[in-house]
Design a protein that fits this description.
It contains two helices and twelve strands; from the N terminus they run βββββαββαβββββ. The chain is mostly beta strands. The strands form two sheets. The chain has an eight-stranded antiparallel sheet with strand order 5-12-6-9-10-11-7-8. The protein has a four-stranded antiparallel sheet with strand order 1-2-3-4, with no helix packed on it.
Length: about 170
């Protein structure tokens, strides 16, 4: 997961599939080719995901981040090292953004926040793919966060950086 070169979009790779999102005429456009560059990507390889039912009490990103850490710790994860996780849900509301720099070349003249274009999905199958680390704030997680999370919808029409979620019942952590 990470930004597209020149901050012109977001790159999300989920279970070996690329979701490269850009904003075109105010709408998200997904390209699934591998012909792209990024200033950085955070990735991990998982031989086999282990499913855990997300409790109904976990309803937002802060709760999810805490529960991911608790679940990983209780199952022997080395909390000093970054690790990937994913969450699958089909009845949640999720807000996300796609970075959309319009400057020529790789020039970036505006603050990151001004380049974000915001979108929302509701009650469709969505996978969140993220990395957890308490050691990389400001490197590949935002300051104050232990996670960097992207999303991709099952219909392949939405992908980007997850900003917020209202998690519905029946979500599964892997």
């Amino acid at each position: 997961i990470g930004p597209l070169a020149g901050l012109r979009g977001e790159i999300t790779v989920l279970d070996g599939e690329a979701y490269v999102s850009r904003v075109v005429d105010g709408k998200v456009q997904i390209d699934q080719t591998w012909e792209h560059q990024a200033p950085f990507l955070v990735y991990g390889q998982v031989a086999a995901w282990t499913p855990f039912e997300v409790p109904d009490t976990v309803t937002d990103l802060a709760g999810l981040e805490a529960w991911v850490a608790e679940t990983a710790r209780s199952h022997g994860a080395d909390m000093e090292r970054p690790f990937p996780f994913k969450v699958e849900t089909s009845n949640s509301t999720l807000a996300y953004h796609v970075i959309a720099n319009l400057d020529a070349g790789y020039t970036v003249t505006k603050p990151h926040r001004e380049l974000m274009r915001f979108f929302e999905v509701k009650d469709i199958p969505v996978s969140l793919i993220g990395v957890y680390s308490t050691e990389h704030a400001g490197v590949f997680t935002h300051h104050g966060d232990a996670t960097h999370i992207h999303m991709a919808s099952g219909d392949k029409k939405h992908a980007g950086h997850t900003d917020s979620v209202v998690l519905g019942k029946g979500a599964t952590l892997f």
